[in-house]
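Check this.
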Amino acid sequence: LNACAPIASLGVLLFTVQFKLDMFMYSLISSGIVTLIGITRLFLLAIAKRKYNRIGIIENSENSDATYKTIIITGLRLTIYGLAMVVASNIGNLIIANKLDASHVTPYSMAVKLFSLAFMFLATTNVSAAPLFGNEYSLNNWEWIKKMYRNMQITSLFLGGAIWIGGILFLKPLITIWVGPVGYPGLATVAILGSYYFFYSLSNLNYVIVNAFNYTKGIAFVSWGEAIVAVVVTFLFIGQIGICSAALGLLVGVLAITVWALPLIVGQRSNGVLVYDKKIFIKGFATVFSLVGVAIVNELLLAESGIKLLCRFLILFIYIALMLIPYKSEI
């Protein structure tokens, strides 16, 4: 279901563009799919609960009320957190439609959906590790948790950089093939969106830890703080830089709040055990930012041709090699 949501969202957007539907129909279909996925989640949760009751994992006890209360409170905190993320990522479309023109929504939304689809693979990788973290946490195996947390920092850094660089290099040809050049929001918007997903990728690992260890107290303030900053920045700059302001709002929001607040919560709650390894990020940032610069120059200077396509793949290959070689011995 985690994989279905962004794929379905992209599918609805492409369907809307292909058949030239209006924003009302796009919102209606998207809301219907989100509702269907939510109902499916509840259905699967009910099945799981019945199964666990049958095999005796969930037992009736004097502490059951307290357990359910904890589950409900945790669920509400995560729901509020998720709601803010939805607001932050979608409010840009409404501001663009209101302040500019509805025709500008499609290029921006198309780029966001494609980046979200790529980000899904990183998020799924991190989420799949949550049960492992939870199990080792119950065993108080902090040595394993610390090692895995460090390894996943490298993974998040590598995949986040690949999303950023890959978006700069390949988003334009992908969008052009499907809807034509009019669907491309511009290199500046794509580069800023890519940087947002890069930094958000670094934060996602900490969200998994927050979820697995139930460090959820206060995360609603983090997510809503990011959403508010994103909305304010978008409103302030929409008249000057157009749709690029929506991407800038997301980037400023994650840099101003989430990128440091979630690691701070995890570090404090784990008594300083789970903290970022500065050496990893110094080397990784140097590689990522250097190749982002090369990718931007490639897109600006070379005309669309077979040589440019070859350069795109070469830049991505160089990035992969530069990231894998120094970190291979550390994982």
About this structure: Residues 81 and 221 are 8 Å apart (CA to CA).
